[in-house]
Amino acid sequence: MNLFTLFISAMLINNIILSKFLGMCPFMGVSTKMDSAVGMGLAVIFVIFGASILSWLLYYFVLVPLGLEYMELICFILLIAAFVQFVEMFIKKTSPALYKQLGIYLPLITTNCAVLYVAMDNITQEYNLIETIVNSIAVPAGFMLMLCIFATMRERLNANDVPKAFQGNPIAFVVAAIMAIAFSSLAGLV
Amino acid sequence: MSENKEKKQGFFSQLLTQNPVFGLYLGICSTLAITTTINNALGMGIAVVFVLVLSNILVSCVRNITPEDIHIPVYIVIIATLVTIAGMLIQAFTPSLYQALGAFIDLIVVNCIILGRAEAFASKNTVGASAKDGLMMGISYTLGLLAMSLIRQILGTGVLSLDNPFNNTQIFALRLLPEGFEIPLFTTPTGAFLTFACIAAAIAAYNNSLNEEKPIKKGAK
Amino acid sequence: MNGFFAVLIAVALVGINVLLYRMNRATPVPEGCENLKPDCSACGIRDCAVRSQMIGERDK
User: Fold this and answer.
1) What is the DSSP string of B19-81?
2) At what angle do helices A129-157 and A34-58 cross, to 10 degrees?
């Protein structure tokens, strides 16, 4: 598969939020301000990229030779949890400025289903290492794009007169529905 | 009489407002993705009940022997093992369901309800209480899934049907909307977001009405 | 033999997890970052493990 096609389809057409519904918790929780949306987005890109490459290597160099493919779920989730701890420690030691921006979002990522999904998807789609790298950048990039678009929309929504029952999350879901219609038309791109 | 009514209202409000899907926004990911048909919703609900009850029991069993700083990895291993077992059982006995649910069976691991209940309830309570808590949370999660999928399937396809996933035969099919009047939008992601928004708004409205009623009742006393 | 490796891998991964968790806890938080508050108000997950952990740490 053409790598550029893979990138565009993973980022926009099969957008992880609008067509797979993954990572909804941070999407609803964090995307109320632009600053936090950027911080969360960067943290997710970093963790998904690292964790899925490590998972790919673990799968093809340890689990397959030993015939233990059924262990992938247990191994991947433990690997993700360990990787998040490592990243947090590494940032604490090396860059306080970066920690200030990303620190609070890192622990939230362990239970983010998007991370596990990308790691598993690279295996089920039988991607090679280069395709895995492209896919693991494109998917969280699409996530961050959504988070930022949504943050700006919610800033505007706060100024609007929304019916009482729809205030807060329900109106955010209506906005997401309209965005899903807009993004579904991108399917013609590839 | 009035006591009975209050009790009944208490049960309903608990079912609505304490429902893990709608009240607490837990596990929205899988809720939105797999509620296209009642079959998928039921299958997912049963898988979640299975994992939730067993993980609560096991976590409660080991709660006194796990040191404080390794409890998260231990819980993750327990939950991931149970989800792997559930996935294998579904693949073996109901292949059609396995195909329909796809990756979302594996994603039960990161469903906030399961780790959340293990942390918040099972790690502090006895085995019996934890099993009961898992069962209650699982059933109300399933009810939330069923409510979503009912709306989406009826509006999206116009037919209310249920299949037997073990041998792929239809148990019943009931056409509720005349042909040509169904709205296929509701089977797409857009429909999922809209349905969830409307249900969440309805529950918020119900909560608001309860909160408004309370002060009046107290004043009357 | 296969089962032995399976258990070995799981135990190794849990070990790595615990080790990193302890090392992460032992690493002091950089200056000026002690009171970072989670900006996560819109999500109503009351029993979210991460959130309760963060709130607990904040109270300490």
Assistant:
1) -TTTTS-TTHHHHHHHTTSHHHHHHHHHHHHHHHHHHHHHHHHTTTTS-GGGHHHHHHHHHHH
2) 160
ipTM: 0.84
The domain segmentation of chain C, as residue ranges, is 2-59
Q: Is A147 helix (H, G, I), strand (E, B) or coil?
A: helix
Q: Where are the beta strands (DSSP E) in chain A?
A: none
- Other Cβ atoms less than 10 A from the Cβ of A51: the count is 26
Predicted local distance difference test score (pLDDT) of residue B216: 47
Q: Which of A169, A171, A140, A153 shows the shortest CA–CA distance to A50?
A: A140
pTM of this structure: 0.83
- Residue A175: domain span: 3-189
Nearest to B200 among A71, A170, A180 (CB): A170
Q: Are A27 and A37 in contact (CB under 8 A)?
A: no
Cα B103 to the chain's mean position, in Å?
17
pLDDT in tens, C5-60: 888 888 888 888 888 888 888 888 777 666 665 555 444 444 444 455 544 554 54
Number of structural domains, chain B? 1
- Alpha-carbon distance of C46 to C41, in angstroms, equals 11
pLDDT digits (tens, 9 = 90+) for A58-81: 999 999 988 888 888 889 988 988
| Cα distance between residue A24 and residue A4, in whole Å | 26
The answer to whether B116 contacts chain C (CB < 8 Å) is yes
Chain B closest-CA separation from residue C58 CA (Å): 17
d(CA A133, CA A49): 7
- Which residue ranges of chain B lie beneath pLDDT 50? 1-3, 5-6, 216-221
Quote the number of domains for chain A: 1
Q: Do B73 and C48 touch (CB under 8 A)?
A: no
User: Under an 8 A CB cutoff, do B204 and A73 touch?
Assistant: no
Taking the CA of residue C4 and the nearest CA in chain A, the distance in Å comes to 11
Bridging pattern class, strands B159-164 and B169-175? antiparallel
Cβ A24–B28 below 8 Å, yes or no?
yes
Domain that holds residue B204: 2-220
CA distances from A111 to A24, A42, A81, B23, B73 (A): 11, 16, 9, 20, 12
What residues contact residue B196 under an 8 Å CB cut-off, 6+ apart? A173, B28, B31, B32, B148
Contact yes or no for A25 and B202 at CB 8 A: no
| Cα–Cα distance, A11 to B24 (Å, whole number) | 29
CA torsion sign for A144, A147, A149, A152 is: negative
- Residues whose CB falls within 8 Å of the CB of residue B139, separated by 6 or more in sequence, listed in order: B49
